[in-house]
Amino acid sequence: MFDTDIYELKMEGAFEHFTDELSKIRTGRAHPGMLDGIKVMAYGVEVPLNQVANVTAPEAQLLQITPFDPANLQHIATAIRNDQGLGLNPSDDGRVVRVPVPALTEERRKLLVKQAGEKSEEARIGLRTIRQDGIKDARQKKDAKELSEDDLKRVEKEFDRLMSVYQQKIDEACKTKEKEILTI
């Protein structure tokens, strides 16, 4: 019999990646996860921001970054400023970096909703690729006479079921994110 559990784990991984990507899209409120994708040049190597500093959100419209080593302060501010996708302008006082999070304009909100839609489409493409790989493997086993025609049909039905489950999860996560973005 053909085991679809491996492919289900891959689909779960693709969904988790999608939710991580969604969490990086900012809403109107400041949250430390907004800066998860930032890489800082520290000690001659690019490292994730959370490995060189502590990121907190003391207010709804402010992020505060406290570096573990004050020598990295300028590098942190530069890395945040250089990430155009965030549109943030950090300032530092010699000890901490403060990043004011401006309120989103209607145009920016629509752009972020569009970005969330693009991420959901990327996740769907990933799921379809996993499904195609699984069905291809099942067909190879059928050609090698390890699976019967009925078993192949059952495998295809199982993949269709998995696809609908994960596509529904993606739709729900995307709708939730859209609601967060559009809430003023």
From TrEMBL:
GO cellular component terms listed in the entry, alphabetical order: cytoplasm
UniProt function note: Responsible for the release of ribosomes from messenger RNA at the termination of protein biosynthesis. May increase the efficiency of translation by recycling ribosomes from one round of translation to another.
Organism: Candidatus Saccharimonas aalborgensis
Domain of life where this protein originates: Bacteria
Localization per Swiss-Prot or TrEMBL: Cytoplasm
Main location: cytoplasm
Organism ancestry: Bacteria, Candidatus Saccharimonadota, Candidatus Saccharimonadia, Candidatus Saccharimonadales, Candidatus Saccharimonadaceae
Alphabetical list of PANTHER family matching this protein: MITOCHONDRIAL RIBOSOME RECYCLING FACTOR PSEUDO 1, RIBOSOME RECYCLING FACTOR
BP terms from Gene Ontology: translational termination
Name this protein carries in UniProt: Ribosome-recycling factor
Ranges in coiled-coil conformation: 138-172
NCBIfam families: frr
Domain Ribosome recycling factor residue range list: 19-182
Statement: the UniProt record of this protein carries the keyword Coiled coil: yes
Family: Belongs to the RRF family.
A GO molecular-function descriptor: ribosomal large subunit binding
Entry annotated with the keyword Mitochondrion: no
Entry keyword set: Coiled coil, Cytoplasm, Protein biosynthesis
Record Gene3D superfamilies: 3.30.1360.40, Ribosome-recycling factor
